[in-house]
Every structure is written in C-alpha cells, then in structure tokens.
Amino acid sequence: xxxxxxxxxxxxxxxxxxxxxxxxxxxxxxxxxxxxxxxxxxxxxxxxxxxxxxxxxxxxxxxxxxxxxxxxxxxxxxxxxxxxxxxxxxxxxxxxxxxxxxxxxxxxxxxxxxxxxxxxxxxxxxxxxxxxxxxxxxxxxxxxxxxxxxxxxxxxxxxxxxxxxxxxxxxxxxxxxxxxxxxxxxxxxxxxxxxxxxxxxxxxxxxxxxxxxxxxxxxxxxxxxxxxxxxxxxxxxxxxxxxxxxxxxxxxxxxxxxxxxxxxxxxxxxxxxxxxxxxxxxxxxxxxxxxxxxxxxxxxxxxxxxxxxxxxxxxxxxxxxxxxxxxxxxxxxxxxxxxxxxxxxxxxxxxxxxxxxxxxxxxxxxxxxxxxxxxxxxxxxxxxxxxxxxxxxxxxxxxxxxxxxxxxxxxxxxxxxxxxxxxxxxxxxxxxxxxxxxxxxxxxxxxxxxxxxxxxxxxxxxxxxxxxxxxxxxxxxxxxxxxxxxxxxxxxxxxxxxxxxxxxxxxxxxxxxxxxxxxxxxxxxxxxxxxxxxxxxxxxxxxxxxxxxxxxxxxxxxxxxxxxxxxxxxxxxxxxxxxxxxxxxxxxxxxxxxxxxxxxxxxxxxxxxxxxxxxxxxxxxxxxxxxxxxxxxxxxxxxxxxxxxxxxxxxxxxxxxxxxxxxxxxxxxxxxxxxxxxxxxxxxxxxxxxxxxxxxxxxxxxxxxxxxxxxxxxxxxxxxxxxxxxxxx
Length: 729
What we know:
The chain is built from 24 helices and 26 strands. By secondary structure, the protein is α+β, with helices and mostly antiparallel strands. Helix 5 crosses helix 10, helix 14 packs parallel to helix 18 and helix 18 runs antiparallel to helix 19. The longest helix is centred in the middle third of the chain and has 30 residues. About 5% of the residues have low confidence.
C-alpha cells in the first residue's frame, strides 16, 4: 500500500553558513526520502530558514541591512548549498512568511482557548549597555545543573538540561559583555506542566505510530523518561513563549510590544512551508490536501505520516513542546522523530584553527565531489543518535576503494568491449550469475536497512554484491577473451552480465548517489530507475551509449586544500585585550582547553611517528596475505572479540579450502554478519596463540585513531581484483 508522508528537516538558522555538521541530518533525510519515492510512496519534503530572533536583528544591524534583506540573502545561500549536495526539498521556505504568521496565531489562539496559556510577571535579564532585554541565547554563564562554563541561557549543550536564564551562574551579556541586571516584565507561558500535557507526553514519547514503529529512537525515549520523570512525578516547567521589543518576529495578537519567542514559530515553519508548497502546486493544477497531514482527525482517517529529521541538540523542543502544542491545538502530532548525532572531524570537534570547521560552500569551491561526502556520511549512519566522525583519510580510502575501485570499476572494465565489438548492443545474460542481485531485493535486506535509516548496513550489503560482480569479471577475464578468436559470444555474455550487475548496484545506490546514478542511467540508456520495476537482466539487443568516466579518485592534496581554505588565523592579541574581562576570561579558558587538546593530539602523533626505522629485511619477515572472511560470529563470554574464519588460499589434503581461525578485537566496531564475504589483510606467519576461546592462527590488520580506542577501528580492505592468498608486499 502506498504511504503518504510529510518529511521535514530541522530549520537552519538564518544567521550563518551551512557547514558539514549541518549536512549530516539533511543528507540522511534526503536519502530516506529518495528511497521512499523509489518504493512508490508519496512524499512531500519541506524545509525553511528559521529567521526570527535577536541574533538576526543584531547581525542585520551590524551589516547595515534590514532583517528582511539579511534573511533574503541567507535564504538564497542556504538553498544553493543544499542543492549542491543533492538535498532536494520540494519546497524551501521562510518562517518570516504570511503562512507562518497565520499558523502561529491560530495555534496560539487555540491553546489560549484550551487553557494552556498563562501570563505572569517575571524578572528578566536586561543589558544596561545595549538597553534591551536579553534573549536566552544572548545570556551566557555556567550551567546550573552540571557546572559547564560558557553555556546559553536556555539549555546546556553539555548535559542537555533546560532551564531559565536566571538559573545560570555568573551570567554575562553575549552582546556587550556587561553584567546583566534583572527587571520585571509580563510574559506569556505555555503550560507544559499541566497534568494533561504531562500525561499526554508520557504516553506519546514511549508509544508507537500507526505503522507500529516507535516514535522515538530508544536513546531519545530514554532521555524523555529522564526529563519527564517517573509515573506520578512532574518534572516539567512551563515554557516562556514571549519576548519583549526590540525583537524581530511576529507580534502576539492583543499584546503590543510582545513577540512570539522564535522557538514557538520555528517548528510551525514546517506547516507553513507545506502550506506554501500546496499553494504553488495548486497554481500548477495539482491539489495537495494539507489538512490530511496537519489536522488531527483528518490525518488519522487519511493514514498520513509526519516525519521530522532533527539533530539531538533540539530534541527537547521537538519531543516535548512541539507535540504538546500540536496536540492541544487540535493538530496532528509527529509520527516519528529521526534524531541524528553531531559531527566530529578526525575524532575531534570541528575547529576553525585546524581548518576542520568546513563550510558547504568551501567544499564545493574546492571542486570536491559532493557525492563523496554523501556516500561517506551514509556509510557512517546507523539510524541511532550516535555522533558521526568524518575521518578524512578514511573517507579517501572508502570512496576510492568502494566507489572507484569496486563500483565504477565494473562498468569501466566491460563497457568498451560492448561498444567496440558489438555495436553498443548487449548480448545474452548469464541469469544465474545475476541471481543474488535480484535475491537481495526479493529478500528485502537492503530495503529494510534503508527503511530503518541504517544506511551503513545497506552499503555493506551493496559492496558485498559489488565484490561478487568484480569476482565474476576477474574469473572470466574479458580482456583475455577479447584476444582469443572464437570467444566472441562468451565475451559478449560476460560483459552483458557484468553490466546487468552494474545496473542493479546502481539502483541500490541511487538514494545515496543520485547524480552519479543519473549518469549511469544515461550511459545504460535507461529510464529513471525505481524499486518497483522488473529486476530481470537487461535484454539482448539493448543499446547502450559510449562509456565515459563516472567518478574520479579522491586525492589527499584536495583534502589538504579544503582544510587550508577553512583554516582561520588566531585572533591577534590586541583584539583579545579589547574584550570585556569576562569575555576574555571565557575565551582564555576555551583557548587553554583547545591548546591542551592539540598538545595531546600532537604528542600522540609524535609517538606514532617516532617508532624506530626498520630495514627491508625486517619487513619481508612479515607474511601479509589477502584473506576472505568466510565466517564471522560473536564469541560467547568475550566483550571485544569476534571469531573469524579466514580463507588465505590454503587447502587440506583433499584440496578443499582450509580457513584459518582468528580472534579479532573488533566487536565494538563491526557486526559479524556484515563481515562475511569481505576481503581483508592478515598476518599469516604470526605464531599461533592459545586463547581461552580457542587457537588464534594469525591477525587481521586494522587502522585506529591515535589512542587505539575501538570506536576508531577500521579493518583494512584491498582493492578489487585481489584474491585470497595473494601476498601483500
């Protein structure tokens, strides 16, 4: 049955550039949307710029622009960057829109009528230098829960706690650096602590949607339980939804000088963007029933879904405030929250001084292929809230090995024979050789991984099939068949079979690599491929186009140029001296921590590079062999070990393969099922070692981060063409 899904992404704030950390969640959502459409489902994919609040107002003032001029410019920049990375929204709108104002006022009015809005006088921080009340994000200090320094006034980025700005310890104004003073002002509150809201949220955060899927990932649901408390306990506070002038946003109806807090109208921007899309579609003659997705009663009857992709830093707002607002205003609540973690680069937070705070625009300007990053992020995504580490050397190796060495390699080795020898027409296909490719679809292994957003699992299965395709080509050696008279028919079949395999791999990879697969569709003269069509081999006589190179290898010098382009010089001492005492103190602490971290990193790197030199004779004593993992399983009672059976080309007396048993400490990094069929590198002449669980007859090679933690383990994989037993030298 066809699904009807509204998919949204977190709204980027209109006060800065899109960087690679942002792109993790957008690429994950875009892959899921493309997969759903290939399955024949109806998907509306919308987003918008989050435009309101003091930061935009102050930046516009600094640049000599009106807020409207600033957000218009940033809107174009954001959409440009998303488009460059293949993130294909159906509509990219703005929260500063007529649709958003109408929805915000409607929802506010409904909540007020339902008794969920209170007004009360509060003490609020005021900047005596700037002469303005300070928004939460412009007050900084120490977290009242965990004590972390330099935290914002509404929530802690270290422990995730939410609190009032007045709870901060040692507060200071992020605008002027002055110590803020308390003044009284009347504010509007959403009664999140109302027992009706608490009871609803306790059930909603633990429940499932109409499809039987959990609305929240396990990690997110556990966090909600922590924030909500146990049954009979109420740990929620009412939510301040108003701000005083001057403020860039929507004025609250009937409350002059009071504005909706940006976090009230920002998620409403999802609905506004969808409404704007429907208006555009209606003008083109296509009707989109918005209320079938947004009205609680109609959505239930229509069986529609609303799926939000967000980062874990905004989980509190999306799993508590947002569904409660929707519920008690009579709107449909989200079907699912898909929460992603943060991005680290080479195991550390993004850093401007190290050049790893990489903007999307600089990546494009350095002429790096956006689909290299899409593929790498997909391979690191497993459907959980775990952080994603962009290990740049690993990205180089992964793209070059998987996409160039395995995937593209299939077509480049076979297409020329078809065009030159057989008038660009395919011959008969060895259907038996292609059977496993269609079986992967029939059995649903790859589809299930895409559905669960475990893209890493999907890509491991796809690359296993790519290994089969390359092995088929290696076994039949079309380059040798072409040199022997009388082998033309076999050559035709082998190359046609390989290209059918290549087509199927392309279809599986299309959600991740849409631009590359569009080139494949053109080369193979195929209509846009989906996952509903015939998986039979390409027919004999099918004409293809001349092959042109599909993807280049990543070079380290390209990555180095990217880092250099993003490296930012340290601020001169004079600028630091000009800061306020508190601001300077905070900066000094941050710089000290950064220097300490960099010192540790340099020490680790120095330790790695200071190993004594060896001679060629020492190296030749090590027998490194290509090994195929024929079996992998967990070891009962072992926390770190996986038991591997490795084929290195050895046979017993009867000529049957005789694999070696190796216990490898890679359990935290790999699922045993994902390893079977992979090629790796093994130390074959390591003395056997008797272990508690059995005899280990060698060692597999793996790369790791500087401190050798398992989170950074990557077993080595040879390029396509290597076979079990080959010597590495």
